[in-house]
Amino acid sequence: MHNFKVSVITVCYNAVKSIEDTITSVLSQTYRDIEYIIIDAESTDGTLDVINKYKSSIAILVCEKDKGHIDAMNKGIRLATGDIVYILNSDDSLCDENVISYIVDEFKKYPQADLLYGKIKYIDLPEYFSLPSSQHNYLIKAKRDFIKKALCHQAVFARKNLFNKIGLLETKYKVCADYNWLLSVFSQPDIKTAYVDRYIANYYCQGASFKNRYACRLEKIRINYKYFSFLDFLAFLLYFAVGIISIEKKKIELFFARLKRHSKKMISFPVALNLIKYRFSRPSPILSYGPLSLTLWISDRCNLNCEFCLRNKTAVDFRYDILPEMTMETFKKIMPMFKTAYAISFMGQGEPLLNKNFFEMVEYAGRFKKTMRLVTNGVLLDERMCGRIMTSSLDTIDVSLKACSAEDFQKITRCPAPDYEMVLNGIKSLIKLRQQLKTDKKIAVSYVLYKSRLSDLPKAIELAESLKVNTLLFLNFIPFGAFDSSGSKEILFEDDKETISFINALKKIPRKLEIIWPVLLRRSNYSGYCFSNFNNLCIDSAGNIGFCDRVLPPSKEYGNIFTDKDVWNAECFVQMRACLLSANKDSDLPLRCKLCVDMSGDKSRAGK
Ligand SMILES: C[S@@+](CC[C@H](N)C(=O)[O-])C[C@H]1O[C@@H](n2cnc3c(N)ncnc32)[C@H](O)[C@@H]1O
Ligand code: SF4
Fold first, then answer.
1. Residues enclosing ligand 2, CB less than 6 A?
2. Does 491 lie in the same domain as 373?
3. Do residues 232 and 269 both lie within one domain?
4. Nearest-angstrom CA–CA distance, 580 and 284
5. In this model, does residue 504 exceed pLDDT 70?
């Protein structure tokens, strides 16, 4: 019997994180007669290095600019010489190694079938998104089934000659060209389709196609209008509207549930109104809501001298003026100015617990029902201090653990090794008091990871587990501090395979502890949303404002809450937000922002 050749096409652009899974899922297929075609749009993030590792098993590799991914898919279809064509995105992977042999057998069983389709496994589906029940039944009996169901190319194998009959994908559709193509297939009665009750591909919901689902829905309206009868089109619009309303409702419920988890405090009316305004507004340079959180730089004095801290002279263009600590008078002026802010972080370019008014500030902010977080180096956490903290209105205590041994602590903080014992004992006291007082305050430890200390990762996890903290947060190193020009070599980059495989191996081990893994930095193509610039306002002891608590701390050149009107929409903020929302981030972003992981495309941090 004729043996089918199957052409599998993957189009990609800057997909270093996922492309290896995609490629290996194709190359590990038990079916041998596969022609693997990869069309890359000149990736710059190391994707090509990954592809080249498998070059000998790739039949056709095209690396050139294209007019979008639909154009690239068409390129692949034109080059395909197989009997059957399948398109797999670089975010997705085949479910198991027998998918293609199974499909070939099915084509042999149904020789009249022009197209076979199966099921998709949705991976990392967002909490707010539940699949409609109609989507659990994948079988499509008639064109009008597309009112409630979705079929995507990841589930579909087509005979090559079907493209001669129907044509290629229409590039005027930027996201849903495959849907348009499939609807035209299902609109022609002489074309035979068959359903196979089997999972075909893992569809990663954090991938590009899922993220574009709103644009996709709008395209679907245009497409369905073309193919549906008037009544079917109305039914589709109704179903579409109900779907969007139920997703938005679920998102709002989850948003408030998340806030409640953070803090059991009642939310005041101005805070709730501000949160709702935020929830329903689109990111724009001028914001209609006020800051959701304030980071207050209450102390620039410090009892440690960490080698990586921005208090030191730095490798990046960085100058920070050390100011006197925030007074109670200033704090009392700030609070009523930001009644709509939900949370406060006590920080500083120093140690907040050194501010003698710290507990008075916590008590005062408590009257405004703020959710409060302290970031401390932990050196002052003796029994008395721990007692005051655990009986205060603070909600989260984040102790930044500088090292995993006294010896390293001494090297990193350039302070006496016994201080390390104080920090560990302090965390233990906090945990003990949490049990005794039965409070639900969150105790977290954070750890700055840099490349030459990557091997600390397992030790840091073990230590945090033994301390029984709630959360361990790894921060990627930002090259401030007493590192010379070698500083940038210490950053953890997203294309560093050694780093990725080291971290991935650790991620596989199940743990009780919540671990927030380091976000790895991109070298270019910044796609981040930057939580801080849209949600958070930093204020120092002189009332100067800053963009974020990582790389752009307060400075009088940005603005001042006491002398400027509407600092939240000050010119510098507006310019910065416009840059973050523009397509041209690569050229316009300040160097320091390019060193911040918020620019690395993890939009989930935006928390909407
Ligand atoms: C600047 S400190 C101020 C609060 C307090 N002194 C402390 O160390 O926790 C705030 C946080 O920034 C982190 N940090 C300091 N320098 C950093 C760097 N170069 N890269 C990443 N995080 C850094 C600290 O570890 C800490 O978690
Ligand atoms: S990281 Fe914190 S503890 Fe270390 S020197 Fe900077 S401000 Fe002080």
1. 302, 304-306, 309, 311, 349-351, 377
2. yes
3. no
4. 9
5. yes
Total domains in the fold of the chain: 2
Question: From ligand 2's centre to the CA of 466, what distance in Å?
Answer: 24
Cα(570) to ligand 2 centroid in Å equals 29
For ligand 1, say whether the CB of 403 is within 6 Å of any of its atoms. Answer: no
- Indicate whether 245 belongs to any domain: no
Q: The domain that contains 309 carries what CATH number? A: 3.20.20.70
Residue whose C-alpha is closest to residue 420's, from 463, 472, 360, 477: 463
Residue at 566 is within a domain: yes
What are the pLDDT digits (tens) for 175-217?
Answer: 889 999 999 999 998 999 999 999 999 987 765 556 666 777 7
User: Tens of pLDDT along 395-422?
Assistant: 999 999 999 999 999 999 999 988 999 9
pLDDT number for residue 15:
86
Ligand 1 site, residue 480, Cβ cutoff 6 A: yes
Residue 555 has pLDDT above 80, yes or no: yes
Quick check: is 246 in a domain?
no
| Ligand 1 in reach of 375 Cβ (< 6 A) | yes
For the CA of 413, the nearest atom of ligand 2: 4
Residue with structure tokens 């370019």?
A: 349
Q: Which of 448, 450, 595 to mutate to test the pocket of ligand 1 (most atoms within 8 A of CB)?
A: 448
Atom 7 (ligand 2) nearest CA: 350
Could you tell me if 231 and 286 lie in one domain?
no
**Structural domain of 206:** 6-238
231 and 267 co-located in one domain: no
Residue 493 belongs to a domain: yes
Q: Which ligand 1 atom is nearest residue 446's CA? A: 27
Q: With contact defined as beta carbons under 8 Å apart, do 44 and 524 qualify?
A: yes
Q: Can you give the pTM of this predicted structure?
A: 0.68
493 sits in which H/E element: none
CB-CB contact of 427 with 469 (8 Å): yes
Alpha carbon of 547 to ligand 2 centroid (Å): 19
CB 374 within 8 A of CB 397: yes
Cα(49)–Cα(294) distance, integer angstroms: 43
Longest dimension (CA), the chain: 88
Q: Whose CA is nearest to atom 1 of ligand 1?
A: 349
pLDDT confidence bin for 603, thresholds 50/70/90: very low
Ligand 2 centroid from CA 351, angstroms: 7
Which 8-state DSSP code applies to residue 56? G
Do 146 and 96 lie in a common domain?
A: yes
